[in-house]
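Continuing the series of single-chain predictions for the mutant panel. This is the parent chain; the variants come on the following pages.
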Amino acid sequence: MIRLDHLSFRYSEGTQALREVTLEFPTGQFWALLGANGCGKTTLLKLLVGLLKPTSGAILIDGRDLTKLKDKELFSRINLVFQDPNDQLFAATVAQDVAFGPTNLGLSPVEIEARTKEALSEVGLVGLEERPIHTLSYGQKRRAALAGVLAMRPEVILLDEPTSGLDPKGIYAIMSLLRKINRDKGVSIIVATHDVDLVPLFCDQVAIMKKGELLSSGDPEKVFGNETLARSAELRLPRIAHLMEILEKEDGLPFTSRPLTIAGARRELLEVINRSHTSTGEA
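Parent structure:
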């Protein structure tokens, strides 16, 4: 369990990046941090992994103050995948880069090799162990960066805009991989993104931020059910929810809920059709 307790952060030049954020991330959930550029998402991720220190407030991990943890313990529990993999990858080859984290944990060569192989298998990079980093495609670099974090076997993985720069196929692949890691290993996932369409498909919970403040948090249907709040954070509704909003407000369809997925929209539309047929039959 990660708890943010009235967390605030101000950069040295005076920018107030976070203001009194209080939020809990229960173990094993898949979270999205949503908001426009400059809302504080990346700053929050850097605070969670100890790259920045809170100006005020606290980050508690299972009740312990994050700032009191030693680096080795912190990085073995929480780790961050940067937005640009080129900022994270630095070793000569893929295998060397993935092995770097476990090596710094002081593990045995046998354990380091086992973790490296396992992580590369999970991200689909088996066979590329000796490939120079600079020869990888952008998508492969993203997977290599994720493998380096997986090799640390953290309890929580943070990702800053993990789909940035990927084509639709690559976006679905990386998000599906993260969901699989979350479900199969019980690893908590927290992604910072502005892609609202991904949230209903992959995430259990969502937090909406604006100018360093937390506006709302909860399951996606609850949060996006308040379209005014979402738009106030300079976010649009997920496309399915936007379509249902138009059908309800402009075409008068009597929906009882505002689904976010194609499957949910299909069910809701069928219910409207069935109610219409029943009403017509009774008349």
